[in-house]
Amino acid sequence: MGFLQRIFRPSMTHKSRAETIYAALMRQSRQPEFFGSERFPDTYDGRVDILTMHIAVFMDAVRTAEAREGINTGRNNEGSLSQAVFDVMVRDFDTALREEGYTDTGVKKRIKPIVGFFYKRLKTLTESLSDPAALLATVQDGALKEESLKFAQIVTTYLQSFQKELANKSFDDLANHRFSFPKI
Question: What total of structural domains would you count in the chain?
Fold first, then answer.
């Protein structure tokens, strides 16, 4: 393999891996068990919230694996698989907005609050993953705010199970989607 291929191959690999992982996280977050009466509302906010929960658990696991295995992600995490998944998500949101008929200006106006919401939820979810009571409060604070406490507890247990599934996976396992989703 040539010198330039070795330098540029990881980001290309991260991009294709991120697309596969994002698609799997998106499919899982759209499972019908998450939506309905006393569950997440099948609205934009409900769909984005459950997707964000899945991405938060995955990104936390990736960052942990990268640190555990000494993987250098570069300045500002630009070489991180987490960043690649985030980039795929933003492109997906951009595409969805364009399909709804928004122009460049309209997309820019709408993407900024979406990304802001994502970062805010990502931060609170990641910080609460190790504390079941805090995680429950964080789950309830999102789109489930006015829905069933029982379902919020189910989602909290689900997220903890997903976190446990990913916790001891190697970076390679995570990057190659060698993990499964728990049952809801």
Answer: 1
Looking at residue 97, its pLDDT comes to 81
Residue that has been written with the tokens 């969805």 in this structure: 96
Long-range pairs for 137-140 at CB < 8 Å and ≥24 separation?
139/53
pLDDT band, residue 78 (cuts 50/70/90): low
Whether 171 maps to a domain, the answer reads yes
Is residue 9 scored above 80 in pLDDT? Answer: no
Which domain covers residue 57, as residue numbers?
15-29+40-175
Q: Which of these, 136, 144, 122, 137, lies nearest to 42 by C-alpha position?
A: 144
- Measured in degrees and rounded to the nearest 5, phi and psi for residue 40 equal -65, 140
- Res 31 pLDDT > 50: yes
Residue 3 to residues 10, 73, 78, 88, 128: CA-CA distances in angstroms?
A: 12, 19, 20, 27, 42
Asked if residue 169 lies in contact with residue 65, where contact means CB atoms within 8 angstroms, the answer is: yes
